[in-house]
Amino acid sequence: MATLRFQALHDAQHRSMQTIEEIQRRSALFNSNVFDQQKMEQYLTREAREAIHNAIEKGANIDRKIADQIAIGMKEWAIGKGATHYTHWFQPLTGSTAEKHDAFFETSSDGSAIEKFGGNQLAQQEPDASSFPHGGIRNTFEARGYTAWDPTSPAFIYGTTLCIPTVFVAYTGEALDNKTPLLRSLQCLDTAATAVAKYFDKNVTKVYATLGWEQEYFLIDKSLAASRPDLMMAGRTLLGHASAKGQQLDDHYFGSIPTRVLNYMRDLEQECMLLGIPVKTRHNEVAPNQFELAPIFEEANLAVDHNSLLMDVMDKVADRHQFKVLFHEKPFAGINGSGKHNNWSLATSTGVNLLSPGSTPMKNLQFLTFFINTIKAVHDYEELIRASIASASNDHRLGANEAPPAIISVFIGSQLTHVLDELEKVTDGKLSPQEKTELKLNVVGKIPEILLDNTDRNRTSPFAFTGNKFELRAVGSTANCANPMTVLNAIVARQLMDFKNEVDGLIDTKKLKKDDAIFNVLREYIKQSKTIRFEGDGYGEAWEKEAKKRGLSNHKTTPEALKANLSKKAVTLFEELEILTPTEIQARYEIQIEEYTMKVQIEGRVLGDIARNHVIPTAIKYQNLLIDNVKGLKEIYEADFKKVAKEQIQLIEDISIHISKINQGINEMTQARKDANKLKSAEKKAFAYCNTVKPYFDEIRYHCDKLELMVDDEIWPLTKYRELLFTK
Ligand code: ADP
Ligand code: MG
Fold first, then answer.
1. pTM for this one?
2. What is the distance in A from the centroid of ligand 2 to the CA of 292?
3. In the structure, which protein residues have their CB atom closer than 6 angstroms to any atom of ligand 1?
4. pLDDT of 265-293, one tens digit each?
5. Which of 33, 268, 645, 680 could make an S-S bridge to 274, C-beta 3.0–4.6 Å?
6. Distance 255 CA to ligand 1 centre (A)
7. Atom of ligand 1 at shortest range from CA of 343
């Protein structure tokens, strides 16, 4: 026995070791399916390359003739790599990605076959997309929306298809996707941040937002997942009793990655490498069968595309390995859910991370400027951030006694808190030379370059500064990062514009020196944004009370949270920055609120079905067994049978109680659904689903889970938590 066991362990370890060759091979694969700079040099003229460069750097348009040239080069490369089709790849408001494949192949007028893909096909397409959500912008009868090439995200080959990242807009110009507003917000942020960065370095010509996401997920055996209608239809378990062992031992988090999972991860990483997704880390997460994957950070638009693509690749690779990936924020009750941390920062064209403290007081003043402005932006628009991460599935995570709460706050650590406290004391107006020296030497000058001390990290904060970037941890694992990133970019852009105006104002009117003016404005911002800063335990009840006192919002459900998007403040912000028009805002709101209703509706139906058609009949079957048993005992023990059959009789009664509670719950829930469906307003309907339908879920589940504990394991039809979570 022992030798077998050791042999198995040896094999497992051997399989999990990456050889040097494998690592080298993998780096050689990087970007090989991406039409990157190297391929452009090979396949495009200098003129075409310059046009793409100008489009990326300056947002310049690419004219049709050049587009033709680019298309020819791209096609040649793609066909050489075995591609037969091309598609405009875009991110509609459903949250996933969409594609419609067209063959390169076309017949020419003389009947011969040619391969056709020109500038027209590259630049613009009109997918027959009448059923993508559009929130009333685009009349379904017209179905006039088109996709247009986004040259800032390179084309790639996926399978045998050349995928061209695109935006998706209505003919009237309104955005129908996640990418369009993101690109607009990046543009704004660039303009605003570059103007401020020039205070410190005149050579800065462009500022990019950077994003490094961390994707959490569960991996479940495919056939086991397929045996659960709730996992298949709703992406989460709607019932299921907790297994005796959950995550209490923390053994999964520190444990080695199971071999089968490791094989999946390797295969996945290989695919990612080909597609240019720079995946770097992988590890187990807190819950059993929960894992995380993170790439090296990239320019935000590309990072968003890569995350969307990754989720698709993860699904496909999982299928090959007989796994199902669960992206849902809370697939299992009672154990950790999944998130998608969004690490965000700002990088200049000169290669400087604006949120990284530097080695000189001047560099640190630059750091503090961007740092404090970000905090102020979050303070002023916390409700918009909350709204940007709202979804039916993320509601199970936010504020539901788990990381992070539905209250948005900023954690900065004790060192920076101290720095801000000192800055708050800066004199109003012109600073004395002595004060300036003191500040530069002892406060600003003393910010350590790398503040990555792990002991100073607060895992319960939804928005934490982690040394050289902010980490928005409240994003849901199913989410498209575009939405929260659009909001973050927008509010920081707005804030930086205001900052620049105020500083310039002080320089002009009060004749302050530039750094005096900056210190003065920052001091006011520190005071004004204090309430958003919180260093304590974000999960505690005490924080909820405290946050309420501070006037911070605490929207626990999606319908509540989404309302912020319609506020005057939000509409003004997005309209002034030309990121979203009021029509686009309204359309997005409707789509999200309707999606919420549909998600809860589906869950209600699935739960009703499982409870009534799987759980109750099984319980009755078992109850009949017990009844037969009691009858038998009565035959043998006659008058004494009640004593002998006491437990069984009790069980029979208990089962009846649970069955009737379940039935009652389903009936009432169905009625609540019918009432909600009668409501005309989409908003009212969402609130009704949230407040009158959803509460039945827990009630029904409670009784089903009790039955799971009573009924014979042999006849219980649903795969149990312990089997879903511990099968490796
Ligand atoms: P953790 O938060 O798990 O301790 P790290 O601090 O190493 O891990 O980084 C987490 C993520 O932050 C990585 O995915 C990385 O890509 C991202 N990241 C690092 N620097 C930046 C940056 N300047 N901008 C955006 N993301 C970044
Ligand atoms: Mg993290």
1. 0.93
2. 10
3. 210-212, 214, 294, 296-297, 343-345, 353, 466, 468-469
4. 999 999 999 999 999 888 888 788 999 99
5. 33
6. 23
7. 26
